[in-house]
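Usage

Read records sequentially. Each one opens with the input sequence:
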Amino acid sequence: MSITPSTPDADLAVPATASARAQEVVLALAAIGHDITGAIEELTGRADLTGNVPGLILCGLSLRGPLRPRDLMEVTHLTSGGLTKQLDHLEAEGLIKRRFGTLRDDRRASIVSLTTSGQRAATQIGEAVESRFVELRGVLSRIETLLGE
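and closes with the structure output:
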């Protein structure tokens, strides 16, 4: 998969208006997002991990260690109910585990951590993004051009 500009000479032409430049930024971000999600699916073999939220949860847990759901709400910007649905799915897939009653001051609280499969998936997500660094640099360069005008 490759990132293609919205017009054949989009890398050369900078739109004149701020609104048009902002629209070009949206297109550039969408293109790289599409490219990265394709790379994630290709590497993991899992379409359900290509959305933003599963990746944010898995990478957040991988980088920060076990977290409380409220900490994951800050990472994902989801409501409690939305996060619960995502955690239920990831737990059913064997990517995370939740332990309840582990906090001294709140026995109802849970801690979310990665399973071995979840850590592998987070690593693969990182590798998929890393495999697209050249494309990312090109998009970032284009965005810098658009923002600089």
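Summary fields computed downstream for this record:
- The mean pLDDT is 86.
- Residues 18-148 form a domain with the Arc Repressor Mutant, subunit A fold (CATH 1.10.10.10).
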